[in-house]
Design brief:
Layout lengths: L8 E2 H8 L5 H13 L2 H8 L10 E2 L1 H11 L3
Antiparallel strand pairs: 1-2
Length: 73
């Protein structure tokens, strides 16, 4: 089993790591919902210019924040 690596990911790519059994679109929607429902995570990501409605590519910093709140996929 590979260890998770903090790097740039597309939102869909990261979402599918968390929810591999879902379609790409459903996985991305699920990850966006998890982020929106976590005010502390949303606030931390907002400081990095993150907008869940328009983001396509996540920076390593954003991925690190998501993993720190949600755990590794």
């Amino acid at each position: 089993m590979q260890t998770f690596q903090i790097r740039s990911y597309s939102l869909t790519e990261l979402a599918q790591l968390y929810r591999p059994h879902l379609s790409a679109r459903s996985a991305a929607r699920t990850l966006r919902n998890w982020i929106r429902r976590n005010p502390e995570l949303m606030e931390s990501l907002a400081a990095t210019s993150f907008n869940p409605d328009t983001i396509r590519t996540l920076t390593p910093l954003q991925v690190g924040l998501i993993v720190s709140y949600l755990g590794e996929p």
